[in-house]
Amino acid sequence: MTTNATPILTLRGIRKSYGPIEVLHGIDLDIHAGEVVALLGENGAGKSTLSNVISGTVRPSAGVMTWQGKTYAPSAPREAIDAGVGMIHQELLLLPHLSIAENIFLGRYPKKGGRIDRRTMADEAAKGLARLGLDVSPNRLVAGLSTANQQLIEIAKALTLNAKLLILDEPTAALGGEETLKLFEQITRLREQGVGIIYISHRLEEIRRITDRIVVMRDGDKVQEFDRADVPVRSIVEAMVGRSLERMFPALPVPGEETVLEIRNLKSGLGHFEGINFKVRKGEILGIAGLVGAGRTELVRAIAGADPIAAGQVLLNGRDITPKDPRTAIRNGIVLVPEDRKQQGLITGHSIAENIGYANLSSLIRNGFVTRGRINRFAEENIEKFGVKGRGGQNASELSGGNQQKVVIAKWLARNPKVVVLDEPTRGIDVGARSSIYEIIVALAAEGVAVIVVSSDLEEVLGVSNRIMVMAAGRQAGILDREAANDVSVMELATA
């Protein structure tokens, strides 16, 4: 770590209120050139709000900031970017109808002769993509790209800003191990070039690996600061949650002998995978691991009827129910909690009660009608059951990521499914919320449900699975029993 004595960014007494509710309570913070500072805290701690203040998305209610020794008060993200401050948001902000290059240079297109210089734009975008190992044409549309690839494009977009300060909000949430390493390489280079970086993540092991010091927030306050990153995970977590808590996985129940779900020689109708064969027993949790692009998400989407199947069978309790659409899968008892909860799992502009009710209308209708009161009562039961911190009438958009995920889980589990598939179930979720979601997953298995968990977090997939199927380049590389599965054995198969 090489830092200058004078900070490039200072915050003093930063407050932010929404009406009578104050969400930031007088935050002081210094960021130096050439250092990576971890900004940690549970969902709702104020991390994103503080980042949005720095990046010009949100204006503070009180307090002052300086940037490179001068007063700094951006009224819009453009002003922050022009000053040299860039941010990669946790929620993807790409425009699907534009090309990758157009998204990367949106609002700052290179010009030549008064016109957009598309060749230069494509060349520069290609360089940014290559730095992150993304082999895709900069001229293709963003529409249809995986969440992981879209995240890499967001990162490439930030890298082309030539910023002096970068704020990375959960940059690896959708990335696998190989992509994460490439990002770390870029962060190291930027640090050597004197760029200051604010790094927000719930993956505590990568915090210890890539950052220089740690700032912890809780309930809108800066509660602790560690002058180094190699502190015990327990100490970090206790500062985040204000109580003693370690990231631990519940004990797994012993699966039954009965096969609930069987996949026979399944082949993607979109060319993403082929030759997939596995079984999931009653009360078993099958983890699916692999690098980004291995075909994991595409496989579970096909099993849930969301993507077409070219060949093979999906059997439920020995009966062929190979789904042609999600409705077929749902009616037969297969439900999917998708990796992108905001785009695919929720209608964020609608209430919690409505979101839960939409997936369960068939059980709520009486004589051809469904009343709002019936939906609200049903929703409240499930809000309490799954520990959602919110009211039925509250919009889903107002919830933290962890509580949004609990709503998605609640709406499907209320149907009493036979098979539950969870794709990246804790993406972008804090330690406390992760623990409760792990408990929900294990409780499902204990009730005899067959569970599939797809995760890019190797510790997670190892911690919650009875067995792990590893995928590589669209093929099934192997299935490991819990006793044989570890970081090395999984990565050997994933990179084979």
Describe the protein.
With 496 residues, the protein is an alpha/beta fold. The protein has 18 helices and 22 strands. It folds into 2 domains: 9-241, Rossmann fold; 259-494, P-loop containing nucleotide triphosphate hydrolases (Rossmann fold), CATH 3.40.50.300. 34% of the residues lie in helices and 25% in strands. Helix 4 packs across helix 5 and helix 12 crosses helix 14. The longest helix has 16 residues, at 177-192. The radius of gyration is 23 Å and the shape is globular. Belongs to the ABC transporter superfamily. One of its GO terms (molecular function) is ATP binding. It comes from Fulvimarina uroteuthidis. Residues 9-244, 258-496 form the ABC transporter domain.
Question: How do the strands and helices of this protein lay out in sequence?
Answer:
Layout: E1 9-18, E2 21-31, E3 36-40, H1 47-54, E4 62-67, E5 70-71, H2 77-83, E6 85-88, H3 100-104, E7 111-112, E8 115-116, H4 118-131, H5 147-159, E9 165-169, H6 177-192, E10 196-200, H7 204-210, E11 213-218, E12 221-226, H8 233-241, E13 259-268, E14 276-281, E15 285-290, H9 296-303, E16 309-316, E17 319-320, H10 326-332, E18 334-337, H11 341-345, H12 352-358, H13 361-364, H14 372-385, H15 401-413, E19 419-423, H16 431-446, E20 450-454, H17 458-464, E21 467-472, E22 475-481, H18 487-494
Parallel strand pairs: 3-10, 3-11, 6-9, 9-10, 15-20, 15-21, 18-19, 19-20
Antiparallel strand pairs: 1-2, 1-4, 4-5, 7-8, 11-12, 13-14, 13-16, 16-17, 21-22
Helix pairs in contact: 4-5, 12-14, 12-15, 14-15
